[in-house]
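Quick one - inputs below.
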Amino acid sequence: MRAEGIIFDVDGTLAETEEVHRQAFNDTFARFDLPWHWDRSLYRRLLDVTGGKERIRAYVASDDPPQGARALDLVLELHTAKTECYTELVVAGAAKLRPGVKRLIAEARRDSVRLAIATTTSLPNVEALLAAAFGSDAAKIFEFIGAGDVVPRKKPAPDIYRLVLDEMRMPTFACIAVEDSRNGLDSARAAGLPTLVTPSVYTSHQSFPGAMAVVPDLDTPPVSLATIAKWRAADSGW
Ligand SMILES: [Mg+2]
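Output:
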């Protein structure tokens, strides 16, 4: 069955952005004179918490780092500064699209398959990435971008996907989601969406029960609309 809409996650799915996020967090901590450094293994653990503000709070609660209380008082400023720093890095081209993303999106546009985004990252982050990756076409590609704090509960809750489906006025069965993480998969599945998973640097150790398909990336093997239709037909009777 043909998918009429594809809803993409951003971080780890459209691009391997988490390394850029990590760099932005660390640059921000230095700017605020916080003696913190998030290395890859620590960041991998912190990624279980979605949302930047929530991630800082969770780090203070679990690791009791120096100046934790001051950081909690500053969490909104920290998050704003981190978002600005991330945006600067992305505008400078630090986050590249993952293999096959541009090709599948081009095929979808040619075939009038509708495209949207469901992410817990902030809207400025998303817009910066799309502008750097797609240039002047960016605003035309995704008809709706569900981003950041627009819903009360972040992934793995289904709220962001439900919002996007409402905004597109699309029935669940007509769409699929593309995700890279267990949190994202659980969110999309809870909204009722068949979900294609392309695990990223920080999620390749996770398991993905209930995924429609799991492939290393959208070029391995090359994922087309026909591939997706075949997977949907095989996935619990779509
Ligand atoms: Mg993700």
